[in-house]
Amino acid sequence: MEWAPIRKSAAARAAANLGDYGRARAEFSWDAARFELFGLPGGGLNIAYEAVDRHASGPRRNRGALRWIDRHGEVFQLTYRDLAELSSRFANVLRELGVRRGEHVFTLLGRVPDLYVAVLGGLKAGCVVCPLFSAFGPEPIRQRLALGEATVLVTSPELHHRKVRAIAGSIPSLRHVLVTGAQAEPGTRALAPALAGVSPEFEICPTRPEDPALLHFTSGTTGTPKGALHVHEAVLAHHVTAGFALDLKPDDVFWCTADPGWVTGTSYGVIAPLSHGATLVSDEGDFDARRWYSVLASQRVTVWYTAPTALRMLMRQRHDLPAEYDLSALRFIASVGEPLNPEAVVWSQETLGLPVHDNWWQTETGAIMISNFAAHEIRPGSMGRPLPGIDVGLLQRGKNGRARVHDGRVTELTGAGQEGELALRPGWPSMFRTYWHDPDRYARAFADGWYLTGDIARRDPDGYYWFVGRADDVIESAGHLVGPFEVESALMAHAAVAEAGVIGTPDPVAGERVKAFVSLRDGHGPTEDLRLELLAFGRRALGAVAPKEIEFDQHLPHTRSGKVMRRLLKARELGLPEGDLSTVEGFS
Fold it and tell me: Is residue 556 part of a domain?
């Protein structure tokens, strides 16, 4: 199905941070962009200083930095000066405990102020910070604490009791467990009195741009999680890309719905908005359509960064529900976490009065690499175009679906419409520096001067990139290479379909047969007539690459960040090992 481009008004183009795309790419350099950072007063670079302390000592010190909404809907605000003092207190607690520069501080918390204080305070102390998702079960937590050689864990009493207490003794490196609140149980220390008992002044460690700062675990299809290590200079990419891709400005009220336990929730849910001096909204509550619209309205959110899964859930609600809320402050919406289906872009334009701007990046890249921009037309279904300072290519693929490497060389595809492995030229500041204790895996991620993403994409004549699928997801059927995302998007254009997951199953003639798992919108039942209708709908939209089989499933497996897990669908369909399940929603 062809979707018409969404063009921007002259006023939107004039107000955008990134205006002339070609000129911006031609003139941009990371060396010049470094002058946007302040640097530590005594020399060096520290993420927490760029995000908080430089504002706390200037005219923005009394501006709201963190606006937190608790589960009951009560709103609390910390100014930049408040956040600077609290994070300095946390750094002093670490110093009092004898925690040394370079040691690893883990957080296992929901979206509560102590999480932001611990992340920023750990960075001030020169530690490597690793946020964990609070919904992990005990074994995924133990595994990451052990792999990441945790020295300190900051968690809540409830999470400690349910998930940490039984495993803490099995992690040799773990010396300190801090629990939020005023009460500690054996083996822990209460954070509130510890913070109250130390100074609000702290001299930030003189960290250098290349010093390790953040460790983010990302799950592979099999085996143990990968720990991607990032450095303090990553803040430059967080700052620059938030300006270009999210059109973020100092007076914005910014809401990133991603949990800080994931890379998005750290890069753009903590660091980037604070580096711009914006006000960051954080909601402790779970997803609920009315609650989310209420947050957007009551907090006068101007820039909203959310996930395709959340948008699809909003699309299931009454079409007139958004009209009950005053969303007039909202000026920019962006999406992250998985490719954005084109119907969500169009729904948002028609229902909210603003389109959703998709973008693409990975845990390893640390920041947005490809995006749709505020001043430029959106082509629904496209990831957009590379950001200034980011060089992107498509590489010819071999039989295994990945870039074909011959004698250490790869072949770049230059023509429009060709599909290849998406690859990036290293050199941006937030590129990961290694996989923790896995240098061989890190080396395999590069070839011939390219970082190999494992994603398959195509490029149109105007330089817009279109996601096809992960290399290990792409289906080869009767000589056709079928991208699951294209099939899923086509099925989701049907009024009955809420979500779809597409895999290939063995076929003795075609090689692989395209099979779709479909969840339905409210009001539609899984009937045989509807199944036949969807098969015909797919054939009309996709022709030869349409699904040959459709199975209804109202409980598609998702990662905790919202992606449909195709590999898990395939493993269950074929009776294969399911691999690492620690990031699966509902798994513990």
Answer: yes
